């Protein structure tokens, strides 16, 4: 982390950069002490600056001031904004000071009382925007160590805000780092090595190797991995922050470290992005780190399946029939529909071994979900509308939004097989739904939700809080979901 944040009620009258916040409805507040010559007022008149959302006004070398630069950031109408508003404002403000060393932000807005959560969201947004992945560039972006002073009337309430935001951002960045890594540097074994680091914050780790996976009968997961020289792993992570007798929540992640499509090989264009097909597993690792780092009062089990899907003389073939851990048989129609094969065994294993309150799986599962929802929402599929609503609300709060899609018997019929219990692809029609229907066949009684994050885990356009290829989607969503529903 390249900067630290301090809170104060006292005005600071000199420094490198002073940042002010202005709504559309109100006059700019509390700048007279810092700008006695009214540089800001004059500039706003000349530029016709009215505080439009995300608008920016810069004033260099302001006359009569001890600051080198003033910046005014438009807030629009914050009273009417979504809950992720302050996170996005924080990221936008970061763009203004990323090259500065000492920044003073005057968090005083006329007739608008800012609360602790909004300040925390703001700080989180600035820190999220600071991430850059340049590990393999010989000419790295120069990082400037920063000190940020936030002037606010509620500074006494903000003692732990920076630490709390730092825990969130470090956990999101763990997921981002994993997804951004090229597959020749992050295979299944290297991924396991990264997960082991969670032991440092108190996460219990159990690693199941190929022989153990075979003994348990996870043949669907093994079928995906059999074309690669890289060994498969199932990693179980446990955080016990509540009464040990309390049933855990469970997060399950697809961890295909590279997906060529197998024998049903993908087109070459864009295949390089399939290094990110372990985005679900990366998010599970990130949320487990966050829960442990902040000592969450909840019991959670995280399970990821790590494989590589490659074509070779040992790879599974279209037309193969595979017996899963559940005993159900699967006709392999398409070897590129591999993520659901991995999850089928993991979901069955999770429900039967840990008896969770609920299972939420995350997977970059289908291109069809990207076609349906684009890159703004993850697809949400669930057998429990109450669970789905809780996830939806957490998405609105964090900006990691989800949209519920249908699952029912009509769609389920599309994956019936003539020679096995189920086939792993229902064809082009309703592709994201039939993928979810496939997963549902491996759920028995537990409340379950499936998040198809194919459109949001990586490759999204740069936005207010992320300029990286990987987003780390899911970490903040699941953290908010837990805080709002399981730590009351």
Architecture overview:
It contains 14 helices and 17 strands. Helix 3 (116-129) links the parallel strand 5 (102-106) and strand 6. The longest helix is centred in the middle third of the chain and has 20 residues, at 161-180. It has two domains: 3-159, Leucine Aminopeptidase, subunit E, domain 1 (3-Layer(aba) Sandwich), CATH 3.40.220; 166-485, Zn peptidases (Aminopeptidase). The strands form three sheets. The chain has an eight-stranded mixed beta sheet with strand order 7-8-10-9-13-17-14-15, with helices on both faces. The chain is α/β, with parallel strands linked by helices. Helix 2 (85-97) packs across helix 3 (116-129) and helix 9 runs parallel beside helix 13 (431-440). The chain has helices at 39-47, 85-97, 116-129, 161-180, 188-196, 210-216, 219-225, 279-293, 339-354, 367-373, 385-398, 409-412, 431-440, 475-485, and strands spanning 3-8, 14-23, 56-60, 66-76, 102-106, 146-151, 204-208, 233-240, 249-259, 299-309, 321-323, 329-331, 358-363, 378-382, 402-404, 422-423, 447-452. Presumably involved in the processing and regular turnover of intracellular proteins. Catalyzes the removal of unsubstituted N-terminal amino acids from various peptides. Mn(2+) 2 binds at residues 254, 259, 277, 338.
Topology record:
Elements (H helix, E strand, L loop, with lengths): L2 E6 L5 E10 L15 H9 L8 E5 L5 E11 L8 H13 L4 E5 L9 H14 L16 E6 L9 H20 L7 H9 L7 E5 L1 H7 L2 H7 L7 E8 L8 E11 L19 H15 L5 E11 L11 E3 L5 E3 L7 H16 L3 E6 L3 H7 L4 E5 L2 H14 L3 E3 L4 H4 L9 E2 L7 H10 L6 E6 L22 H11 L3
Parallel strand pairs: 1-6, 2-4, 2-5, 5-6, 9-10, 9-13, 12-16, 13-17, 14-15
Antiparallel strand pairs: 3-4, 7-8, 8-10, 11-12, 14-17
Helix pairs in contact: 2-3, 3-4, 4-8, 7-9, 8-14, 9-13, 11-14
